[in-house]
Amino acid sequence: MRKLRTKCRMVPVALALSIVLAAATAPQAAAHDFGDHDSDVLQPNQTMTGIYVMGGTVAADVRTVGFIDAQINFARRVLNQGAYKVEIIQKGQATTTNCPGLRRAASGYLCIYEVYKDSRLTLGGVYNPIGSGGQIDQDGAVLYGQVESANSDDGDSPFSTGGWAITGLKSKHNK
User: Fold this and answer.
1) pTM, to two decimals
2) What residues does each domain of the chain span?
């Protein structure tokens, strides 16, 4: 058997120390500071998609009647959120020009597509949970529904599930 020999080059100690010190003293960005990169903002005609799930309870002593909600969180910030419009396509309802189908939305629209639902629940709309202008915030919105009856015909909790899509405003709004 042969032994392998390796050559090792020694980095001068002074050079190695200066590299370590430079890295340790370099300015560091805060963990939440992503800078002013285009990648963290929804771009014109770019579409983001996601899902939502909302549900209540049918426990004998605590039956949901009234309003329940679900968060919609955007992966990228939405600028000029007050200019966006929202359309909800409830299960069984026809799609629209602005909301032509699951995972699709016209420019400047948040489209919510209900896929499954309990007969006691009706989607009501969306609201901006922090009141920053418009129906949506730059980071998302809250979808709400109304549970009309505590009586469950099948023993299930009231629920609604589906998907959403938002498409960036045309570029004249983002300048």
Assistant:
1) 0.72
2) 43-173
Task: Report the distance separating Cα 130 and Cα 133, nearest Å.
Answer: 9
Phi, psi of 161 (to 5 degrees): -135, 155
Going by C-beta distance under 8 Å and a sequence separation of 6 or more, which residues neighbour residue 87? 96, 98, 99, 109, 110, 111, 112
Q: Are strands 85-89 and 109-117 parallel, antiparallel or unpaired?
A: parallel
Backbone phi, psi, residue 28, to 5°: -110, 140
DSSP β-bridge partners for residue 73: 140
Adjacent-strand bridge partners of 140: 73, 137
Q: What are phi and psi of 17, to 5 degrees?
A: -65, -40
- Angle ∠(97,47,88) on CA atoms, nearest 5: 45
Q: At 106, which amino acid appears?
A: A
Strands (E), the chain: 47-55, 58-59, 62-63, 66-73, 85-89, 109-117, 121-127, 140-147, 159-167
Q: Which residue has the higher pLDDT, 151 or 74?
A: 74
Say which residue, 149 or 107, is predicted with more confidence.
107
Distance (Å, rounded) from C-alpha 147 to C-alpha 124? 10
CB 109 within 8 A of CB 86: yes
